[in-house]
Amino acid sequence: MIRIGDILERIELYNPDFDEELIQKAYVFSAKAHQGQLRLSGEPYLIHPLEVAGILANMHLDDQSVASGLLHDTIEDSLVTHKEISRLFGSQVAELVEGVTKISKMSFESSEDTQAENFRKMVLAMTKDIRVILVKLADRLHNMRTLEYHKPEKQQRIASETLDIYAPIANRLGIDWMKSELEDASFKYIMPEAYASLERQISKSEKERSRYIEDVKQLIKKKLAENDIFAEISGRPKHIYSIFRKMQSQNIEFSELYDITAFRIIVNSVTECYEVLGIVHNLWVPIPGKFKDYIALPKANLYQSLHTTVNGPKGERIEIQIRTHEMHQVAEMGIAAHWKYKEAINLDEKDDKRFRWLRQLFEYQNDLRDNSEFLETIKVDLFPDEVFVFTPTGEVKEFPRGSTPIDFAYSIHTEVGNHCKGAKANGKIVPLKYNLHNGDRIVIITHPQAHPSKDWLKTVKSSRARTKIRQWIKTQERGQSIQLGKDLLEKEAKRHPVNFNRLFKDGSLKSVAEIFGLNTADDLLATVGYGKITPRQVIRRILPPEELDAEAHPEEQKPLLKIISKLKGKDSSPILIKGEENVLVRFAKCCNPLPGDKIVGFITRGRGIAIHKADCGTIMNSDPQRLVEAKWKVTDTTRRPVKIQTTSFDRRGILAEITKKLAAEEADILSARVHTTDDKHAVNQFEIAIKDLKHLNRIIRALNHIKGITEVKRIQF
Ligand code: MN
After folding, report:
1. What CA dihedral angle connects 693, 694, 695 and 701, to 10 degrees?
2. CB–CB of 41/34 below 8 Å?
3. CB of 645 within 8 A of CB of 709?
């Protein structure tokens, strides 16, 4: 149980000259007012105001706010009056306490008119003194922490209200930890089963995850230290509600969710933020479209940070946030990080921008007499990362900021999205990549011949639109594969005593599909079209072996081996594909694997098998079903080209020494590029043929021994 002494200690840490007497007095007053009252938990009521004051002290708020936290329920629950508080604690504390009391009496689930009226009161209280809402948030937070003692109906009502109103306000004020805690606490009561199951799954994988987090942290730390950057690095699972929302919006299971861990790197300067970003992107391949620069473009609640998602050490996605200590303070404490309460309500120049939205709220409440209009406007301001637009019938729809008419079209109906050809905003034709603005009235123009294109994926913002477009493209591609599979199978069927058309009617195809672990005949055809099963393999399952043309295909064909055998070339290849020799392969340009590198094969469409490094970023994002096992054939004669770059002082004869060393190390030079810089340096690039990674490392070591060489490294083609 928290004691007044704990609170005093906490305040002293951030504000040594605080008014201890005021807090003590408020404590004694609150204890008297609540004497004999009990909470539903059976504990003395006083615990609640103490906890609320403790939360406010954790937020580093001023004396008056903490005192108000202690006193916040005295007017509501006891016979104390505004006048009395004003006399004992000053008018500001009295105003705060009264403000909180008023908000507490509001209920937000009532009819639209009452709801609007309540919002107006809250806005008034907030604009008069924002501390009112901070005290109210602390009050709500403690109530959410102790909600278990209430009856289920009340739990539901309070939890929904918290999720609808208070969590967004905490977010709007930039108090991230509070937003997360309020969301999780509400979610727990609104959807208890979903919450419990997620919590179970998260804790089940906890041991493994914390080891993983430690590994990633060490890796980052090492890389940063190599660049003389020393940072605070932390990693933790995201909060449960955000995980839940992600699963919902992307329609996926927990096990399919990779980036439930978020890493945070805190550095000393903005320059370092971008340096760290570069280092991280060098270490792991960034996922396109996931980088966000909230430093250059802060969020509406002033949040600043760099966000990126990369393919981590095991190919899994990791979300990384990079920010300075100051930005971190703002992210954690929000509004409270900026506000000097000494100057009380007079906002200085710098704060002006930060509170413009608040002033705006105040003006709305004055100007907008129509309740529903007022409510819509308020919502717009409470959810700054969303835009609200109207359908032709006047219905309001909400989208992530930056959404386009395509997002809108898919929100109306999948078919509208799939045939969306153009759009009008407020009566004027706009391009499909137009960014929706608050209040736009959007009309979608459709055409039966219009279809989604892959480019749409780059512009849409809502996950619904994205999912639907992907689905359409997939279906399209599947359609093509089925047709191709059909053609191939029909051709093969003609070479055997098989009636192709009957295969569909008598269910043979379906039973063959089942043999291969597929569900339908179409699945089978698609797989044949895709090249994973050969037509021959299908026919084999239909005909008895003696009727098969014996010499054409003697050996037992495993899936894939058939295509592989087609790709067999005359040249000896250094790669074994699933143990097969001499398969036609090419080496991917993106990562140029070397003997010794861990590799994997990727079945391209029509261009054989491409060999990538196993950790190549291109592969991570591709269809896993098209990957095949690949190994280096161990021979002594295989040579692979690789490019290296040496940097050296421009000393006479150095080039000769380099080439001599290369020859001594048995590395054939395939090509060379020599380049002298202005500052008397030489940067040379050699393409050399080498045996394997060990060989390369030996060469690099040897070159490093040459006097005047400052750097030797492997570079990409
Ligand atoms: Mn309370």
Report:
1. 110
2. no
3. no
Exposure b/e, 633-663, CB count within 10 A at least 16 = b: eeeeebbbebbbebebeeeeebbebbeebbe
**Active site includes 77?**
yes
639: helix, strand or coil = coil
CA–centroid distance, 111 to ligand 1, in Å, is 25
Residue with tokens 């992530």: 400
pLDDT at residue 272, as a whole number: 92
- Taking residue 538's Cβ as centre, other Cβ atoms within 10 Å add up to 26
Cα end-to-end span (Å), the chain: 65
Torsion of CA 339, 343, 345, 348, to 10 degrees: -70
Rg (CA), the chain: 33
Rounded Cα–Cα distance for residues 383 and 249 (Å): 18
Please provide the size of the chain in residues.
717
Q: Which is the catalytic residue, given 19, 76, 215, 666? A: 76
- Annotated catalytic residue, options 19, 77, 650, 687: 77
Kindly give the distance from the C-alpha atom of residue 49 to the centroid of ligand 1, in angstroms, as a whole number.
7
Span from the CA of 45 to the centroid of ligand 1 (angstroms): 10
Distance in angstroms (rounded) separating the CA atoms of residues 525 and 538: 10
CA of 186 to the centre of ligand 1 (A): 17
602 burial via Cβ count (<10 Å: 0-12, 13-18, 19+): buried
Percent of the chain with pLDDT over 70: 83
Measure the CA–CA gap between 626 and 609, rounded to whole angstroms. Answer: 10
Which residues 6+ apart lie within 8 Å of 243 measured at CB? 198, 202, 237, 254, 257, 260
| Cα three-residue angle 36-38-42, rounded to 5 degrees | 130
Q: What is the pLDDT of residues 362-402, one digit of tens each?
A: 666 566 666 666 666 555 556 566 677 888 887 767 788 88
236 sits in which H/E element: strand 232-237
* Closest by Cα among 553, 551, 579 to 564: 579
pLDDT tens digits, 165-203: 888 888 877 788 899 999 999 999 999 999 999 988 888
Q: Is 124 helix (H, G, I), strand (E, B) or coil?
A: helix
